[in-house]
Amino acid sequence: MLISSNSNSGNDNDYENIIDPGIIWSFAACNGQQNPVWDKWNWLIGEWDGTGSGQPGQGDGIFTFKPEPDKKIIVRKGHSTYKGSANKSEAVHDDLMIIYPDYTGNVSKAIYFDNEGHTINYSITYVEKSIIFLSSRTQNTPLFRLSYTLLENDLVNTKFEMSQDSEKFTTYTEGKSRRTK
Q1: What's the CA gap between 181 and 171, in Å, rounded?
Q2: Contact 181/66 with Cβ under 8 angstroms?
Q3: Long-range CB pairs of 151-156, under 8 A, 24+ apart, other chains included
Q4: Could you tell me if 25 and 131 are in contact, meaning their C-beta atoms sit under 8 angstroms apart?
Q5: How would you write 140-166 as a 3-class SS string?
Q6: Could you tell me if residue 133 is left (phi over 0), alpha (psi between -120 and 50 degrees) or otherwise beta?
């Protein structure tokens, strides 16, 4: 912000041209943020339809990965239904994940929310044809790992695992999905 004195007093202490340091800092901070590079995500962007099984039972679901405001983040939305049985009622699972870059533009973080009340902070790694989300270690909470692996064009394997000791992971649910759009 540039401030000019409207005083005509002729006093040498009048403010003629002052630049607000807060404005400079804000400008530098905003310009320091790099645009994220989503190249590693191209194969996963879109709408997916799949089936799978695991501890909740046999299920069907859909999920999307969509770039949002000016490709600054990716939003993942999911909806799954798990069939009921004689001793288990049908279950519905809805979730939302926001994938975002760090200050250098490296896409390395995500936060997840679901209709069961879970909130999970993830770090992201890339291994060959896989994108792997690993939760932050929290006291008295299992470690979670969510992996998307490209099997062939428009076909992915999704696996959600848990670990009590941070070393041995047990699959909670796993399934295959095909891109529909």
Answers
A1: 28
A2: no
A3: 151/176, 154/178, 154/179, 155/179, 156/44, 156/48, 156/50
A4: no
A5: CCCEEEEEEEEEECCEEEEEEEEECCC
A6: beta
The residue ranges of the chain whose pLDDT is under 50 are 1-7, 15, 23-32
Give the integer Cα–Cα distance in Å for 59 and 77: 16
How many structural domains compose the chain? 2
Alpha carbons within 13 angstroms on the beta-carbon side of residue 142 total: 14
39 CB-contact burial (10 Å; exposed 0-12 / middle 13-18 / buried 19+): exposed
Is 25 found in the same domain as 9?
A: yes
Together in a domain, 107 and 22: no
Instruction: Give yes or no: residues 171 and 92 share one domain.
Output: yes
Compute the distance between CA of residue 63 and CA of residue 47 in angstroms, rounded to an integer: 6
Q: What is the DSSP string of 56-113?
A: T-SEEEEEEEEEEGGGTEEEEEEEEEE--BTTB--EEEEEEEEEEE-TTS-EEEEEEE
15 and 97 assigned to the same domain: no
Q: Taking a C-beta distance cutoff of 8 angstroms, is the pair 126, 132 a contact? A: yes
The domain in which residue 76 lies consists of 39-179
